[in-house]
Fold this sequence. Notes:
- By secondary structure, this protein is of the alpha+beta class.
- The protein has 2 domains: 47-178 and 284-337, no CATH class; 187-280.
- It is 26% helix and 32% strand.
- The strands form 5 sheets. Strands 3, 4, 11, 12, 13 and 14 form a 6-stranded antiparallel sheet that branches.
- It starts with 9 loop residues before the first helix and ends in a 7-residue tail after the last strand.
Amino acid sequence: xxxxxxKIGLGTAVMLFLLILIIIVAFTVYMIKVNKDEEIESKEPMxxxxxxxxxxxxxxxxxxxxxxxxSSWCCTxxxxxxxxxxxIVGQDVVFTPQEExxxxxxxxxxxxxxxxxxxxxxxxxxxxxSLKEEIENAIKEKFNQESDxxxxxxxxxxxxxxxxxxxxxxxxxxxxxxxxxxxxxFDKLENGDFGEYKNVEYFGINSSTDNEVGDQIDVLxxxxxxxxxxxxxxxxDDEVIFCKNPDGxxxxxxxxxxxxxxxxxxxxxNFNDMDEFKAPRLDFDIKREYTELEGKLFKTIDGEAQIGxxxxxIKLSLDENGGEIKSEAxxxxxxxxxxxxxxxxxxxxxxxxxxxxxxxxxKGKDAPYFAARVDDITKFQ
Length: 381
């Protein structure tokens, strides 16, 4: 039986070639889109962004302010204060009576040169809707984030006041945003106790965890299981430091005391295979309005001003993978320039050309030694 040869026509071959080409192009476009979506997703806020407002956690504006239990601090409010003080006020902000937090903020013990530019965005200017749009676009481009506080400010009133009165409204704004991963993923551990609290979620290292996970931990000191500090390293420059049973009335005191213990520690600073570590997962979202600073007049170089609004937010999440922090701060400053110099007054004419009285008095004496009243000047000439 004669074998038939199967031949493909030229038109069919061209169509198959085009079909294959279309499939290749479509697949390439799809993969580009997938990669782009993954890149965007990597910058998307973690679940903490949608947290309900956390109750019972206080916020202090500086590391020098006294704290109580359950307190927090972030540098963002200090950064907006620095800009307000240096760019517009021109001197220390002094209330009457002075606020202790204002005194601490005036010291500027945290400045922008203490943190890399990639960590934060800040902006100040006359408060207008165009400034609001500029900030929103900038934080979207830099961090892929939206603001949680800009809509709390009264933009229309500020613009009206700028146009119709002698008051100028300035906005000082800062956002800090970081998202980081640990070098190695920690294990999710069984829920356990935290002091008197039960069923707390933990992550960390136990006897079954791969040894390499512990390599990302540096021991600052270990005096006992109730007195230690460790550093968790990440894939970026971020360090997560845990200090158990901190000592101090301010965050600065706690930090300084911790570093002093670390410098005096002569034990093993390596995290060893037999060591174990656990830390609670964290998720909180707090907001503070600094009402103590609002509505009080203070002097500026050019006049006087008052803070119309002072806000700060801090969001933090931390788990076995890594963490995310987002903090915003804003100050609305209402400045009124010093009154214009009074117009030159009309000349006064001291003409003694009608009835008058005259006194002669010795310098330093209580009573004149001569007095007269003159009505008819002809009697006196």
